[in-house]
Write a structure and sequence with these properties.
6 strands, alpha+beta, 3-stranded mixed β-sheet, 3-stranded antiparallel β-sheet, globular, about 30% strand, single chain, about 70 residues
Length: about 70
């Protein structure tokens, strides 16, 4: 997850659960790590995202996908 504020993009990292939310940086966690249905924002992230120009959530595969050329 990233958010943009005043033209600067910031990355919001994932923590395991609400109890792991840091006080000094934005973070998020899944409502249920075993079967997630929602992304939950820690307090610091909620404040940052509320004031942000845009928010970007990337869902899915995070690795590199090599696509063969079309012949």
């Amino acid at each position: 997850m990233t958010f943009t504020d005043n033209g600067t993009e910031s990355v919001v990292g994932q923590v395991p659960d609400e109890a792991s939310c840091p006080d000094d940086v934005p973070a998020w966690y899944y409502d249920n790590p075993a079967a997630p249905t929602a992304i939950m924002l820690c307090d610091r992230a909620c404040s940052a995202v509320t004031a942000a120009e845009s928010v970007n959530v990337v869902v899915g595969y995070q690795g590199t996908v090599v696509v063969p050329p079309v012949r």
